[in-house]
Amino acid sequence: MSKKIIVFSGKQLSGKDAVAKILLSYLSDFRRIGLGDAIKLEYMEQTGIPLSEIETNKAQYRGDLIALGNKRRTEDADYWIKKIINFPYNIVVPDMRMKRELDYFKAANAFTVRVEATVETRQSRGTLSNQDDITETELDDILGWDYVIHNNGSPEELKVEVSKLFEYLKETYFHNDIPLQQYF
């Protein structure tokens, strides 16, 4: 079996992490590893701010995290991808934001998912910040995602949508490489 990678894109508060978490409940041999996780860990090392504080107050640190992410991408366009791509498991990446990342993951035969939610829905979930930053806008015009989830409903509706995604993955991406019984 070849390594499998499932990547999610979407604007802040669209529900990428929620979709990934639900999907992971079906995929016992997959692990979550985010590009943002690598950025947060490096930011924690640089500043001494505990990861729990960064996670709890994301809006407060978002500008600094974006700046660090962009700085490393300037040094090496694949910096963050290289940090996670060699993870020794099948992986779910819940936070792909740049065309370069999309190209890199597609070259690695990743399955791409776009999570969409209206600005009103996203605002109801929390504070939106840095909405014009390239990390929020660069993938807006991309077409041809392997799958798109619209996340404007209830948590129960999202679970139904993710179960449809899982069924689609079984039919199209897993190609019987992974015995289905291990998912149940």
Question: Can you walk through the features of this model?
Answer:
The chain has 184 residues and is of the alpha/beta class. 49% of the residues lie in helices and 14% in strands. The chain has 9 helices and 5 strands. It has helices spanning 16-24, 35-47, 51-56, 58-75, 79-85, 99-107, 119-125, 134-137, 155-172, and strands at residues 5-9, 30-32, 90-96, 111-116, 147-150. The chain has a 5-stranded parallel beta sheet with strand order 2-3-1-4-5. α2 packs across α4 and α2 packs across α5.
Write the layout of secondary structure elements.
Blueprint: E1 5-9, H1 16-24, E2 30-32, H2 35-47, H3 51-56, H4 58-75, H5 79-85, E3 90-96, H6 99-107, E4 111-116, H7 119-125, H8 134-137, E5 147-150, H9 155-172
Parallel strand pairs: 1-3, 1-4, 2-3, 4-5
Helix pairs in contact: 2-4, 2-5
Distance between the termini: 19 Å
Radius of gyration: 16 Å
Shape: globular
Q: What series of H and E elements makes up the topology? A: EHEHHHHEHEHHEH
What is the count of helical runs?
Answer: 9
Main β-sheet, in a few words? Answer: 5 strands, parallel
**Which residues form runs of ≥5 with pLDDT under 50?**
179-184
Estimate the helix proportion, in percent: 40-55%
- The number of strands is 5
Q: Which strand order does the major sheet show?
A: 2-3-1-4-5
